[in-house]
Write a sequence for this structure.
């Protein structure tokens, strides 16, 4: 792979020097001018970007095409204020907005498609929002709002809104077809077509993709396999329009989790027999699980299914001019999701064979390891206990957003009612397995040689399983949201405008969970090997059994969010603004479970409240785009709900304070021959105003870099040739609240080039071309970290390259 990376760099450099003196004006600029760019996210009406008193970044379909992000998270890395962890693979990644810490997922931002949520809560357990949407050629543009008015136009979104806006047909029939391959076995096809069925009246658009690949990390099976299709039909009449649409997603993705590394201060290297760039514990040889259950029957699972959501979305949008400057807009959507989620979650780090045997009650050298595959006796230096976690989720969400708008000479006012009902029913079945601590792990059995095969406790495993179904959950959570909101835009003068918004949330949450007991298979009549009963193994000693009694709970939220802002347009190219906003996030799903499963909770269950103040300067011209946005935020009642490897949940509360500045820029130089895109964030997120004597007071918020940025220069060598290099820097962080485990800073480079031949575009894109070992998180499920030595962490993917051909017609 290093040779391939070097080749990619050399090819890019050769291309540049061979054409360095070509001075033709390029036709393929990476970014259109923002002077007249219109944004809709976080605004009651479409508004010029320079006139919007929000911190918002926009990406057109052409910009997305040129970046060719390997995942939605990779695209969001280009947004200042968003610290994004991309190491999970195509899905299951984490986004932290403006230094707001969480257990992960998209907990404080809402991800939308066409102005409605992908799912109402984007941070349900094992249901990150990016599990349920994909970026393909049917996306027309993306708008990413930080803070600001997010809490007025959506729920649980004080950190911001991310809105993917899909293509619609026009009078001209147009289409795009793309074929893509890679160094990791990728075969992907994207197609999008749109046009008019009746000129000026009835329009359609259909698009989607199908993809299969082996994964950058070597799993031994197809790591990603599936695709999506979406279509819409829009009818335009004299006073408005009506649109209906449908989306089907059926995609299977491997989720990558921490692997062992060796850390010495800020230096990282691979653990023995484990490639840090391409290795993973999620491997074919340990992919099958089939175990009897204490309640009867068998439970089986296939790791190759990975994260496998089946998503059906049906929606409609209606707008009508009521006359006298009044209009009505209604958006409605129903989403149904069935997801099987299977992943390998390390249960701590590697242990020597002696340490693991001793921890399982085997004295001295009276242990024997053997391969489950063929029974051969082996002596691995290190072994690894891994969680084989299986989760099934059935989810649905009906949402309707009705709003009325009145326009007057100096502005407009919008009032709306937002209704959302959602349900999540989930079942967990978790076991632990024992493997070699290598990147092509093999299942191990362990026995106590001081005992005979018929003795109680002779074996510590059952076909490589150390803890059979040690955790089961059967839980249901429902939300019913009833929100009223109003937003006012008022132009005091042609240059000065003010904005104010208010949202009242009257929300209900309820649920239940099955109580559990423990049992074993000693009296089941089953055998471990056809001869010996389960009393000879400890693997079944603490099996979880679902009971027929349920605990029921409910929780109500009555909260008001508000914002106030002013925007002063100095001239056509310059503007300044200021905004204060107050918002909240309802308790997340694990917080409800923790609270209501504890008969004597020591902390009241509360929503997380936020206050944010931001000021900004924007400059947009034909040559430069610049945005500089200082911000300050505070959070109260922040709860951490990481689930540890033993199935217990963290239950830590904190308050935080953060101040920083977001930077975003774009330059077109030398007659558009050189383009430079830049975004960066400088911040200081800390735990503040905690209980007296708290050891966390003043510590840096966990997993939050103080400084991160992305810069991407591109050279339009001729009208047709284009080459770029990207640099992504992610600053030092701490894995834990106590600031014990350092996550070193890292820099990831990418490079690529494209050639436009008429309507055909050829492109090569390389990621992490120098094979950097960069860790985005440690192991949040391992409890207290211990600093240097062997650590568990989740690194970014190794070097890879993709090649594509795109036809526009």
């Amino acid at each position: 792979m290093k040779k391939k990376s070097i080749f990619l760099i050399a090819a890019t450099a050769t291309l540049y020097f061979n054409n360095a003196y070509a001075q033709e004006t390029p036709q393929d600029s990476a970014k259109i001018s923002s002077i007249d760019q219109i944004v809709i996210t976080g605004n009651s009406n479409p508004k010029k970007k320079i006139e919007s008193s929000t911190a918002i970044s926009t990406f057109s379909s052409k910009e997305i095409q040129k970046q060719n992000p390997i995942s939605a998270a990779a695209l969001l890395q280009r947004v200042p204020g968003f610290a994004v962890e991309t190491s999970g693979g195509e899905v299951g990644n984490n986004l932290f907005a403006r230094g707001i810490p969480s257990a992960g997922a998209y907990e404080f931002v809402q991800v939308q498609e066409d102005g409605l949520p992908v799912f109402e809560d984007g941070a349900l357990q094992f249901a990150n929002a990016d599990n349920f949407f994909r970026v393909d050629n049917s996306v027309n543009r993306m708008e990413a709002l930080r803070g600001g008015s997010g809490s007025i136009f959506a729920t649980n979104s004080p950190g911001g809104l991310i809105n993917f806006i899909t293509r619609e047909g026009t009078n001209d029939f147009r289409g795009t077809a793309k074929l893509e391959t890679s160094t990791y076995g990728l075969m992907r096809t994207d197609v999008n077509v749109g046009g008019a069925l009746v000129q000026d009246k009835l329009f359609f658009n259909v698009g989607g993709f199908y993809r299969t690949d082996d994964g950058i990390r070597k799993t031994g099976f197809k790591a990603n396999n599936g695709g999506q299709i979406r279509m819409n039909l829009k009818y335009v009449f004299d006073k408005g329009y009506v649109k209906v649409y449908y989306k089907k997603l059926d995609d299977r993705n491997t989720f990558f989790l921490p692997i062992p590394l060796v850390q010495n201060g800020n230096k990282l290297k691979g653990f023995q027999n484990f490639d840090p760039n391409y290795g993973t514990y999620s491997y074919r040889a340990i992919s099958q699980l089939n175990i009897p259950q204490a309640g009867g029957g068998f439970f089986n699972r296939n790791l190759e299914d990975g994260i496998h959501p089946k998503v059906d979305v049906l929606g409609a949008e209606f707008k009508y001019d009521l006359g006298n400057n009044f209009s009505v807009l209604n958006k409605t959507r129903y989403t149904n999701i069935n997801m099987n989620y299977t992943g390998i979650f390390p249960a701590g780090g590697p242990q020597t064979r002696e340490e693991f045997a001793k921890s399982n009650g085997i004295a001295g050298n009276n242990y024997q390891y053997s391969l489950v595959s063929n029974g051969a006796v082996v002596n691995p230096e290190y072994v690894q206990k891994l969680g084989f976690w299986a989760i099934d989720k059935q989810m649905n969400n009906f949402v309707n957003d009705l709003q009325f708008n009145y326009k007057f000479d100096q502005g407009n006012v919008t009032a709306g009612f937002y209704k959302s009902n959602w349900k999540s029913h989930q079942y967990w079945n978790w076991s632990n397995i024992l493997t070699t601590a290598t990147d092509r792990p093999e299942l191990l059995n362990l026995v106590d040689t001081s005992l005979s095969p018929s003795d109680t406790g002779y074996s510590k495993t059952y076909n490589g399983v150390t803890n059979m179904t040690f955790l089961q959950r059967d839980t249901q959570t429902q939300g019913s949201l009833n929100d009223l909101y109003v937003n006012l835009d008022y132009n005091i003068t042609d240059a000065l405008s003010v904005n104010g918004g208010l949202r009242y949330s009257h929300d209900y949450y309820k649920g239940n969970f099955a109580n559990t007991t423990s049992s074993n298979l000693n009296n089941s009549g089953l055998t471990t090997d056809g001869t010996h009963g389960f009393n000879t193994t400890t693997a079944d000693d603490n099996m979880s059994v679902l009971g027929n009694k349920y605990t029921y709970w409910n929780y109500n939220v009555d909260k008001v969010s508000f914002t106030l802002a002013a925007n002063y347009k100095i001239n056509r190219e310059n503007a300044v603004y200021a905004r204060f906003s107050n918002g909240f996030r309802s308790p997340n799903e694990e917080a409800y479970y923790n609270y209501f499963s504890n008969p004597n909770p020591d902390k009241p269950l509360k929503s997380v409240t936020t206050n944010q103040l931001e000021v900004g300067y924007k400059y947009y011209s034909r040559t430069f785009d610049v945005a500089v946005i200082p911000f300050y935020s505070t959070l109260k009642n922040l709860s951490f709900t990481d689930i540890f490897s033993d199935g217990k949940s963290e239950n830590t509360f904190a308050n935080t304070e953060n101040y920083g500045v977001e930077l975003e820029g774009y330059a077109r130089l030398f007659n558009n021959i050189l383009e430079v895109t830049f975004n960066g964030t400088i911040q200081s997120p800390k735990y503040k105003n905690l209980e007296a004597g708290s050891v966390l007071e003043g510590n840096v918020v966990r997993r939050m870099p103080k400084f991160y940025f992305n810069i991407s220069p591109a050279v339009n060598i001729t009208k047709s040739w284009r080459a770029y290099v990207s640099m992504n820097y992610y600053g030092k962080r701490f894995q834990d609240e106590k600031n014990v485990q350092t996550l070193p800073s890292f820099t990831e480079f990418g490079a690529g080039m494209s050639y436009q031949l008429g309507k055909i575009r050829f492109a090569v894109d390389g990621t992490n071309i120098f094979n950097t070992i960069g860790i985005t998180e440690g192991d949040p499920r391992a409890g207290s970290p211990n600093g240097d030595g062997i650590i568990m962490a989740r690194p970014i993917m190794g070097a890879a390259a993709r090649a594509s051909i795109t036809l526009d017609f």
In short: The first strand starts at residue 38 and ends at 39.
